């Protein structure tokens, strides 16, 4: 069948973003796309977004530019202690169960994966509550992996430097213990997570659309929060199925409060509205 009207650059762009990142951009988001790409249109001195998209889609070797586009198209909103009941569940339910299961031999090690980590607030929140549990006398070690598709966010997460307003949701006693300020004028109004936490939290690039994830297969807790909402239904199913293969038996998958309906997998049992356990 011949198409009478060829797909516009906007349509082709939305298809490209969908296939690269899983993010489905409905036609109604055209204004948002235009706004987010405006800086790139200006950087190239182009007339309009249409011209920019033509360049992006038709010129060869736009790989580096595509990386920038993905940074601009992703929504990276996050915060410390977002959906705080998840962190209570981590310390009050998951951690004691792991300690019980692993007995009294070697120091047990809890592995947590923040699978759409953005700039790291989620991973460092987990690190703070686990460090607190250690201070309270529980004997265990932990390792946290944060992954994201946005290189810009991964750079920020690795630096672990946050503005004071981003830290406003961190309780004062945790700020005193785990966040340090600097006399450096370049860091005025900012603070950095302490080395004790930074040593245990690593960040690296991972695209959830990839067929396989280079991640351990005995992860105790996966935080997959506020990212499934951007994906089409069949992509959500595929991502969840892959996630399950990385959970240890008895491991937990935690999703955002509006995402629990997306989790339909025979290997997972729902234990709270947004918390699933691998059987
Ligand atoms: C709204 S943030 C959520 C951050 C954090 N999980 C939270 O709940 O606060 C969504 C993150 O998912 C990332 N993301 C979107 N598509 C992705 C993909 N295909 N693979 C990996 N990360 C992706 C974005 O870059 C963004 O940082």
Structure report:
- This protein is an alpha/beta fold.
- The protein folds into two domains: 9-73, Chemotaxis receptor methyltransferase CheR, N-terminal domain (Chemotaxis Receptor Methyltransferase Cher, domain 1), CATH 1.10.155; 85-278, Rossmann fold (3-Layer(aba) Sandwich).
- Helix content is 41%, strand content 19%.
- It is built from ten helices and ten strands.
- The protein has helices spanning 9-21, 30-43, 49-58, 63-73, 85-102, 121-135, 151-159, 172-178, 195-198, 233-246, and strands spanning 109-114, 141-148, 161-163, 179-180, 190-193, 201-205, 219-224, 247-255, 268-272, 275-278.
- The strands form two sheets. The chain has a seven-stranded mixed beta sheet. Strands 3-5-4 form a three-stranded antiparallel beta sheet.
- Strand 7 (219-224), helix 10 (233-246) and strand 8 (247-255) form a beta-alpha-beta unit.
- Helix 1 packs across helix 3 and helix 5 (85-102) packs across helix 6.
- It is globular and about 70 Å long.
- The mean pLDDT is 95.
- S-adenosylmethionine binds next to loops.
